Amino acid sequence: MSTPSPITTATATAATAAADFIEVYPEALDAAHCAALVARFAASGDVLPGKVGGGVKPELKDSLDLTISGHPQWRDAEAALNTAVFKGLLAYLRRYPHTLIAPLMLEVPSADGTRHRLTPERMLAMDDAELAPLAQTVFRPGAINLQRYSAGRGGYPYWHCELYPRDPGTETLHRHLLWTVYLNEDFAQGETEFLYQQRKIAPRTGALLIAPAAFTHTHRGNRPHGGDKVIATSWVLFQRAEQLFGA
To answer: Which GO terms describe its molecular function (predicted)?
Structure first.
């Protein structure tokens, strides 16, 4: 019997014991950019009451939302947010390489042209120029929503996850990771709270939160006090099977 590699024994055991798969990357977006997004959001006449999977239910989620993806006037904001998130995603993949390699048995070419199975060790040795196209092959960005939660009233108190079989196109089942960029912090409370990890993430301007989308990371958005809470949020989705595997 072969001896397991270190990453599958003591190293992996220690890393798993310490991990809750919730990562926060401070200053992913600079404060000036965040303030500009908050101002643009406030000036927009296109905001709508926030929805959950079953529609507008303010007892579950009380917010004002604006989907910016697909709107030409928001293309610059969408690009800036996706760039910040992708940088965080590469860091997340290095922290948790099985985010990428556990769902798919990936092969990559070596220097001599032969193909080999992608392992955590090989992945961790990649620089951004090597890892980025691999991540883009497997993942795609979701539609970005800007959300405002009013002080003393707004929030998302319902314990929920991001993965559910709602739409006929199964897009909601392609969600692999959730992300949130906090655009302000001039309020009290308003944390993102994870149920099973017993962890609250306090909003800090420009910070990026990444966590798994499934029920293991059931969460809620606590009510802000003393000021409105504004976030940008979306998902990292798998590419569709037609893209990954062909017809």
So the answer is: oxidoreductase activity
